[in-house]
Specification:
The protein is α/β, with parallel strands linked by helices and 244 residues long. The protein has 6 helices and 11 strands. The longest helix has 15 residues.
C-alpha cells in the first residue's frame, strides 16, 4: 500500500503543466482540448489562458484537457472532444497526418475555437486559413480601442456593451474569408495602427466543412484572462462551437 501511494505521488509530481490528461475531472457534459503549441512567437499569456479555460470548465460543467503535443491529433483521440481550442498557437504546429486528422474531426461535426494568434498559424495549409477565417498580417502596440458588438444574440456576445472599450493587441488581418459571420468589428478611429479600414472584423463564427468555428482576435495580454467580460466572451464561443 505504501509503495502504491509513493508511486502515485511521483506521477503527480512529474505531470507536465502543458499536457494535462484531464485538467478538469467534473461530471462534464462535453470535453474540450486546449492546444497551445508554438513554432513562432510565444505569448506569455498562454499559461494563464490555459488555466482560465480550465476554470471555466469547472464553473460551467465541461472538461478541459490541455496539451502542446501535436501527436494527440489523431482521428481516434480527437473524437472524444466536442471542441478543439487553438490558444495562441503560432506558425507550423501540425504535420500532414495531424492536419488530415483534424480535417476529418471538423468534417465529422467537431467544433473549433481560435483565440488570438490562432490566426498566426499554418500559413501553408489553405483549408485551415479558410476555417479560421483570416490570417494575421501585422499589429500595432498594445493599446485601448473600441470594439463594436454587432450581434447580441450570439452566446459570445451576450451581456456585452454595444461599444466595448478594452486594452489588447489589435491584429490587422489578410486573406479574410468573406463567408464568415462577423460578430464584432474594431473601430480604427479609436486607436493607432489599424490597417483594415472602416470594416475591421475582430470576432466571427461560421459553419465550415461540417463543423462549427469561432474565432476571437482578442486575448494577447495576460490581463485579458482575468477580465469577467472577456472570459464570458470566450465561454460563449466555446458553447457555440460545442453546439450548446
Amino acid at each position: 500500500m505504501k509503495i502504491l501511494l509513493a508511486f502515485s505521488v511521483l506521477l503527480l509530481l512529474n505531470a507536465s503543466p502543458c499536457d494535462s490528461p484531464a485538467g478538469n475531472k467534473n461530471a462534464a457534459g462535453f470535453k474540450v482540448l486546449v492546444f497551445s503549441k508554438t513554432a513562432g512567437y510565444r505569448h506569455a499569456s498562454i499559461p494563464v489562458g490555459r488555466q482560465a479555460i480550465l476554470d471555466l470548465g469547472l464553473k460551467h460543467g465541461f472538461t478541459a484537457d490541455t496539451t502542446e503535443d501535436a501527436s494527440r491529433f489523431t482521428q481516434a483521440n480527437l473524437a472524444q472532444y466536442a471542441v478543439v481550442i487553438f490558444l495562441s498557437t503560432t506558425h507550423d504546429v501540425l504535420d500532414e497526418a495531424q492536419q488530415a486528422a483534424f480535417e476529418n474531426y471538423i468534417r465529422s461535426g467537431g467544433g473549433y475555437v481560435g483565440i488570438h494568434a490562432a490566426s498566426d498559424t499554418e500559413y501553408d495549409w489553405p483549408w485551415y486559413g479558410k476555417m479560421v477565417g483570416g490570417y494575421f498580417d501585422s499589429r500595432p502596440e498594445i493599446q485601448e480601442a473600441v470594439v463594436h458588438v454587432k450581434n447580441h444574440e450570439h452566446p459570445a456576445c451576450k451581456g456585452l456593451p454595444n461599444d466595448w472599450k478594452r486594452t489588447d493587441e489589435w491584429y490587422n488581418f489578410k486573406s479574410l474569408n468573406d463567408g464568415v459571420n462577423v460578430l464584432m468589428t474594431l473601430d480604427e478611429t479609436t486607436y493607432k495602427g489599424g490597417k483594415n479600414g472602416t470594416y475591421h472584423p475582430i470576432v466571427w463564427y461560421h459553419e465550415y466543412d461540417g463543423g462549427r468555428v469561432f474565432y476571437t482576435g482578442m486575448g494577447h495580454t495576460s490581463e485579458s484572462y482575468s477580465e469577467p467580460l472577456f472570459l464570458q466572451h470566450v465561454l460563449g464561443g466555446i458553447l457555440y462551437a460545442a453546439g450548446k
